[in-house]
Queue: 2 jobs
Job 1
Amino acid sequence: MNDTPTRQAASHVAEPIETRRWPEGEWTRIPFWVYTDPAVYAREQERIFGGPSWSYGALEAEIPNTGDFVVTHVGERAVIVVRGENGEVNAFANSCAHRGVAFCRQPRGNTQSFTCPYHQWNYDLTGKVTGIPFRRGYKGQGGMPKDFSIEGRQAPPVHVARRHGVVFLSFDPKAEPFETYLGAQLRYFDRVFDGRELKVLGYLQQRIGSNWKLMFENIKDPYHASVLHVFLMTFGLFRMDQQSAVEMDASGRHSALISRRGGAADEVAAREMANNLRTEYKLQDPRLLDPVREFPGDATVVMQTIWPNLIVQQQSNTLAMRQIVPRGPDAFDLNWTFFGYADDTPEMTQRRVRQANLMGPAGLVSADDSEVLAMSQQGLGDWPDNACIVEMGGRDVQDQPHMITEVAIRAFYKHYIEVMGL
Ligand SMILES: [Fe+2]
């Protein structure tokens, strides 16, 4: 393996994807071009987001009543998720069967039917076309051909999987059952989504100037948390010497970073981190932290990534879905949905909302990530033929009982290389 930068300035002319070669070292090297090449991005839309995966779509708590809907995204594509007549959850593309118009203009709402503004084609809550103006013409003139059938006309359908109040979507009928899809990671999903009714607390939205994968990798990268996030270290929320683990499913695509707050600081770890520690800082309002134990087991933080677009955040008592919506190779939207449980006390809700100050575009912790991801994209883009080194914690893709590792990133790329055929 040759790690010396080649010093060939980027030509910015993308190679055809067929001639792309993954560098030697398999998943311990990530070529920079996977973050910048439009052809790679296009193949991701087709094979990852358009393939047999389950993308997070919405929480059922957002659409409790018949006719409640949200517009969400699977990869780049807009999908309407709506509560049907019989309590079921339906999903279909926001694209009119007539001329492809993205007919639903509200991000969320309640309706009895959908109408395309262009030619007023009408849709029921399952996405079927129920009405076409001037279908039979006017006074014997025009209209659709006599043999044109309205039967089976619909906005492109999207498959739905529901588990404990969370809605997942797939364009591919061959997607396996959601529980099988999550594999060994199902227990971490069920830890937060244990069947209790959820309550949405609010939304945050931001656009970040980096490739979508860098966000996903960020939550598979505990290494950075102990050095980049000064807030976490300063106030004792995360240290490398805490009892922790990184676990994946068998495919490597999903993962969980599990850690436990507290315990005596190890001297060596403390010295390593001393540069970033500000011991003189105190919180003016200690209620900003003030976590209480609420989940079984002794983990205080579990950050889970579910391929291909979801981060489930459980940092102390602040819970959020972070949905990744790719917006071209160099940008993505990060949609945060903060939630709690319907049976939370008002105090608990307040605590969740307070702790949410660590998160989001201006979050005391997350702001670091948004900034560093954009910096990554800048540096990567200039050197497409160079590659990331991903060897922290070894070169394998096995679960590890500590956080000084990039194993979950390696596992992700093991799967990614397969799916993408690179
Ligand atoms: Fe981070």
Job 2
Amino acid sequence: MSLEPTPSAAAGGVAPFWRAAGLGRCPRCGQGRLFAGLLNVVPACGECGLDLSAQDSGDGPAVLGIFVLGALTMIGAFLVEFRLEPPLWVHALLWPALLIPASILTMRFAKAALIALTWRQRRG
Ligand SMILES: [Zn+2]
């Protein structure tokens, strides 16, 4: 995958969706960072100046994380418990160590994807 902007993005078009969502980049130019810190959306793109202050992904990314990661964790916990039968402290260490980074990554991806999709839809 090329990290260079597409000609249409450089001309003020639309960044490739997977670049915007997967790398957390501006939905218009694909170059500027979408996030300041872990999950805060920047007010404007640092590269093309696109106003991102009105972009609100709402509760969608959190709901996705709860449903998907909750289901995967439940399945994983059952498998680990009934196949390996570890002591309880293994569960207490294992699941937070896996879930906290997975939650952040899932929410970053979902937030960037929703912002990219809504921006594309609204620009008409
Ligand atoms: Zn931009």
